UniProtKB/TrEMBL annotation:
This is Tail fiber protein. Coiled coil: none annotated. Residues 473-486 have a biased composition (Polar residues). The lineage of its organism: Bacteria, Pseudomonadati, Pseudomonadota, Betaproteobacteria, Neisseriales. It comes from the Bacteria. InterPro entries: Phage_tail_collar_dom (IPR011083), Phage_tail_collar_dom_sf (IPR037053). Residues 375-432 form the Phage tail collar domain. Gene3D superfamilies: Phage tail collar domain. Residues 461-493 are annotated as: Disordered. It comes from Neisseria subflava. Pfam families: Collar.
């Protein structure tokens, strides 16, 4: 099936298919004539529309182009890189009916800049560059044409000028003003409402630079007058100045170059140093310093603070101070009677002090370890082990708490739970025999091993007593024994020497 060939012409009539027309194909066939006419009209109208308001080429609009939209943007002028200028007018929703408008330049999603025209009220003129330049040049050489009036009334209402001067001694709203005042009125109110003034006191020998400001309320009534600070009565921002009187600062005052308070022939200087803030006495040239590291010093000598105190008695530092509690603890643990037992030098001494004279001796465990090392075994006459000792009863004890003892004997007397505990030697009811250690008297013994009781091999003789028999009378007879015999038992359940029971302990 072929396509119709469109002609750029407006076909006047569109033929209808009548009853009896034959359905025959072909360019001029009756059935194709109305389709051809519609196709021609469509192409013609498309061409006409594009020539009038198309999206390319030069367009000529004869008459008025009305763009009606209730939004800010009305027209967009797009550049080849996608940036564009848009013309905006205020929509009806803003309540101004286009009384404000803007030209806005946008690139991507970001606004680059805009030319803003505020709300137009009535007829407004635009100041062109040439007009602005001409008037600026005139103002550089000419005096401004400002209207003034000599105001004498007792009330502040009734004036219409934006500025005026008052002559000497006159009053405004019943109040005497400075010798000359420049009065500024609010441009949108009447009767002197919210007016402001600046007053000058010229010609005064004592205070020739006196300057004041005055104010009126919403009803044109005089509110009052305040003095404006000048170099004569205010604090300057630069140069030297002497300020008299008491000054109260209700907020922070910053002195970048320091602060000096002087009197009685000396000064107290507050300054900041590279690593501190300090207070200096000019008489003694001494400094009280707050260091950046948090310390307090007096001319670089550290001052002890409460944070420097310590209750500990085992610190080896000159930066801490011992409290009275630390001194008491050290005293309680020190030698109250007698001296120290030397064990080969200053670092090897046993220091013993007494809680109460004649009672319990308290021993510094760290020093005592030099004389009685961890793992030593001793016997005691009491049933409670002394401080620093454990009963040698085979108990399982902590490998962490008694780390030094575990390092000394290890698992020789038992593994404990194999992880956190180990066993002490069990010396209860046992005699101690020195380890053979290769002497070959007590062969094959291992340190810490247990040995059962044993008799040394020996023999006994069996004696035969002489006795009378019936067949020989009192004459001796020879008796032969053909069977094995044994001596009669004697003694208890074990073999032991004389002894006394004491508590066996191991040094922990």
């Amino acid at each position: 099936m072929a396509n119709a060939k469109e002609l750029n012409q407006y076909t006047q009539n569109v033929r209808l298919i009548e009853p009896g027309d034959r359905v025959i194909g072909g360019t001029d066939a009756p059935i194709n004539q109305p389709l051809q006419a519609l196709a021609n009209r469509t192409l013609y109208l498309k061409t006409q529309v594009e020539s009038k308001i198309g999206n390319k080429g030069t367009q000529v609009i004869e008459g008025q182009l009305n763009i009606q939209t209730n939004a800010w943007e009305k027209i967009r002028f797009t550049n080849g890189d996608g940036s564009y200028w848009r013309f905006e007018t205020a929509p009806v929703s803003e309540g101004e009916n286009g009384a404000r408008f803007n030209y806005v330049f946008t690139s991507g999603s970001r606004e680059i800049g805009r030319v803003h025209f505020p709300r137009v009220s009535g007829s407004e003129s635009v100041a062109y560059q040439s007009w602005v330049e001409a008037n600026a040049a005139r103002l550089a050489t000419d005096k401004m044409n400002v209207a003034t009036t000599n105001y004498y009334a007792d009330q502040s209402g009734g004036y219409t000028k934006s500025g005026f001067y008052r002559s000497n001694g006159r009053q405004l709203d019943g109040n005497a003003l400075p010798t000359m005042e420049i009065h500024i009125a609010h441009p949108e109110v009447v009767n002197g409402a919210h007016a402001r003034g600046i007053g000058f006191s010229y010609g005064s020998a004592s205070n020739p630079f006196h300057l004041v400001t005055s104010a009126w309320d919403a009803n044109g009534r005089y509110i009052g007058m305040r003095t404006v600070l000048t170099e004569e009565n205010g604090v300057m921002l630069s140069s030297d100045q002497t300020v008299g009187g008491i000054k109260t600062f209700t907020s922070k005052a910053v002195f970048n170059a320091g602060l000096s308070v002087s009197g009685n022939g000396k000064s107290a200087d507050i300054h900041t140093g590279p690593k501190d803030i300090y207070l200096r006495n000019s008489k003694s040239s001494k400094y009280l310093q707050l260091k950046d590291d948090g310390t307090l010093t007096y001319s670089d000598v550290k001052i002890a603070l409460m944070s420097d105190k310590s209750d500990a008695v085992n610190l080896d530092s000159t930066d801490n101070l011992a409290t009275s509690k630390a001194v008491k603890t050290a005293y309680d643990n020190s030698i109250r009677r007698g001296g120290a037992v030397g064990l080969g030098g200053q670092n090897h001494q046993i220091a013993i002090g007494w809680d109460t004279p004649g009672l319990i001796a308290r021993v510094d465990n760290n020093v005592m370890n030099v004389g009685v090392p961890v793992g030593a075994v001793a016997y005691f006459a009491q049933d409670v082990p002394p401080f620093g000792w454990l009963k040698a009863n085979g108990a399982a004890v902590s490998r962490t708490i008694y780390a030094n003892l575990f390092a000394a004997i290890g698992e020789r007397y038992g593994r404990g739970d194999g992880r956190t505990t180990f066993n002490l030697p069990d010396l209860r009811g046992e005699f101690i025999r020195s380890w053979d250690d290769g002497r070959a008297i007590d062969r094959n013994r291992v340190l810490g091993s247990w040995q059962a009781d044993e008799f040394r091999s020996h023999s006994h003789g069996i004696g035969v007593n002489r006795m009378s028999d019936t067949d020989r009378g009192s004459n001796p007879s020879t008796v032969s024994v053909d069977t094995v015999g044994q001596t009669d038992p004697a003694g208890g359940i074990e073999t032991r020497p004389r002894n006394i029971a004491l508590l066996a302990c191991i040094k922990a």
